[in-house]
Amino acid sequence: MHIEKNVFKNIFNTVMDIKGKTKDNIKAKLDIALFCNRQNMKLVCDESRVAKPRASFVLEKNAQLLVYKRLKSLHFPDGHASNISRLVNMEECRLYGMKSHDCHVFMQTPIPLAFRDLLSKGIWDTLTKISHFFRIYVPSS
Length: 141
Prior knowledge:
Elements: H1 2-15, H2 26-35, E1 44-45, E2 50-51, H3 61-72, E3 88-89, E4 94-95, H4 100-108, H5 110-114, H6 121-137
Antiparallel strand pairs: 1-2, 3-4
Helix pairs in contact: 1-4
């Protein structure tokens, strides 16, 4: 389940663009410029600073708030998972205190539902396939 927790954190932090926790950083953009031919993903250099273009898989602020509102209203049956709605901090737009089992449950069911209408079809399909993989191949303890 710890691998599942790491995968969940990487996906959630990157899609929600959480500062300091996202995997879409300047080093990744430099690698894209070096190894890929994606002109829309390269760094933009001005005289005084380097700007990172927004990726297609990163949500805008209002979409992020919608995800947190969905999570705040989420309820599971007793004994299935902890109350994820109490882990959501709406003021700071953050999730706090996610345990391994919470991430396990979240990766298997709500992650495709949380991002369903907010991400492009290709990215949402990929998240759904990852969720399906964890539901089938990773046993719960």
